Amino acid sequence: MEGFTDLLQPVVLVPWILGMVFGVFVGATPGLTATMAVALIVPMSYRLDDPVAGLAMIIGVSFTAIFAGDIPATHLRIPGTPASAAATLDGHELAKLGRADHALRLDLICSAFGGLVGVLCLMLVAPQLAKFALKFSSQEYFWLGVCGLSISAAVSQTGALRGAIAVALGMMLSTIGVDDQGAVRFTFGSLDLYDGVQLIPAMIGLFGLSEVLRFAARSDDPVDAVGASASARGGEAPQSAWRSVWAHKWTAFKSAILGTIIGALPGAGADIAAWGAYGMAQRTSKNGKRFGRGAEEGVIAPTSANNAAVGGAWIPALVFGVPGDAVTAIVLGAFVVYEIVPGPQIFERSGDQVTAIFQIALVTQFLLLAAGYLGIKAFGWILRLPRGAVMAAVAVFSVVGSYAMRDNVFDVWIMLAFGILGFFLEAKRIPLAPLILGLILGPMIEENLRAGLIKEGGSIVPFFTRPICLALILTLAGAVGLKPLWARFARSG
Question: Which of 22-31, 82-91, 105-114, 153-162 has the highest mean pLDDT?
């Protein structure tokens, strides 16, 4: 209880709440993503004197922005984040019936509930998984990294081939700099590249600046075009949402568990978790034919799953250093700066920090109820902001955030380069999340491949004969073979 009391001190609580408000703003603005929100908030968190306050800001934003994306999805049928797409189907139909507030209250309650389930699963599973992970050697970590990248490519919504291209590009970029044997690679004589590509500026460029460039390239502004069509708010009592959630409590619980499991798969993410839960709820509901026409279960299922996926994605991130999605990848990068080194020994080496992370994540679910309610009420004000002004602010945040990381102008150039790269990649429908995972996991794969070969005198046989390696290879084969199942989830709507 003492730890929870420390979290409620003003030095922690104030930046925490401000971060969550920022997450609501970014998530509720169509075109801005939860990934962008976290990437932009990380440099700000480093300037705080209390590291716990910085962690609270980052964690608070990661959960809040996922929920906030459902606000424009309900009112305007424009998902604020990719994870909000599944909730659009029935949420917007309820809004057209004058029940927008009811739909968003369902959304908010289930987002907090799903997040709570995901965090509790993280707290229960991660320590046990860490004990098992102590049996891992270089060969197992090599295959774990390969599994993460392969699954990320396989479940890519734009196709496995494009996902593989993104992964390969990320791995190529990860080789820049000085390797663990002292070899200088692809630095082109620049001392700034000796440490490799800095992760946070790269992600700010990919997910922040690239969106600004896409907006500048468009001749129309979809938000302005539909802004006037926001549905009328319903007059139902807030208690009715709680009663509806209770009536469908098993749908919410099953969806949250499924979201946690899918979130723990590298590359799957909250959007696939939401679609998976929507498909499961539709097939198991007695009123499956009502889905897509304003069914409450069609809101409860995906919104319980997408926030649960955030907690689920932390399970492999903390224990193995393998992030489940792009948002977790950024959070993982931030943890390293706070001297929280992911891996099987994280609970021994950084026990106090991990305990603080768990406590922050739990309290965030309750703060989300308040921050989300304010976001629902403030949506009309957010919608009236000129889209150009919002994008100008994103551009400024991108430049300032990239520079603030190390007070280095070169990082701004990295951000600009990745912003242009992200713009062209998305124009060709090449996903960005697998690229980020390739950038993060590339060094892990290379270093463990090299260490395993050195340890075995150059023999590659143990990579295929060790029991855990065989299990990981079979897992990889099964996950890639289940690609049609992922596609079925995506078509459930």
Answer: 105-114
The predicted model gives 175-196 an average pLDDT of 85
Q: What is the 3-state secondary structure (H, E, C) of the chain?
A: CHHHHHHCCHHHHHHHHHHHHHHHHHHHCCCCCHHHHHHHHHHHHCCCCCHHHHHHHHHHHHHHHHHHCHHHHHHHCCCCCHHHHHHHHHHHHHHHCCCHHHHHHHHHHHHHHHHHHHHHHHHHHHHHHHHHHCCCCHHHHHHHHHHHHHHHHHCCCCCHHHHHHHHHHHHHHHCCEECCCCCEECCCCCHHHCCCCCHHHHHHHHHHHHHHHHHHHCCCCHHHHHHHHCCCCCCCCHHHHHHHHHHCHHHHHHHHHHHHHHHCCCCCHHHHHHHHHHHHHHHHCCCHHHCCCCCCHHHHHHHHHHHHHHHHHHHHHHHHCCCCCHHHHHHHHHHHHCCCCCCCCHHHHCHHHHHHHHHHHHHHHHHHHHHHHHHHHHHHHHHHCCHHHHHHHHHHHHHHHHHHHHCCHHHHHHHHHHHHHHHHHHHCCCCCHHHHHHHHHHHHHHHHHHHHHHHCCCCCCHHHHCHHHHHHHHHHHHHHHCHHHHHHHHCCC
**Mean pLDDT score, 402-412:** 81
Q: What share of the chain has pLDDT > 90, as a percent?
A: 8
pTM of structure? 0.72
Q: Which residues pair with 178 in a beta bridge?
A: 184
CB-based burial, 93-121: b 16+ in 10 Å, e otherwise: bbbeeebbbbbbbbbbbbbbbbbbbbbbb
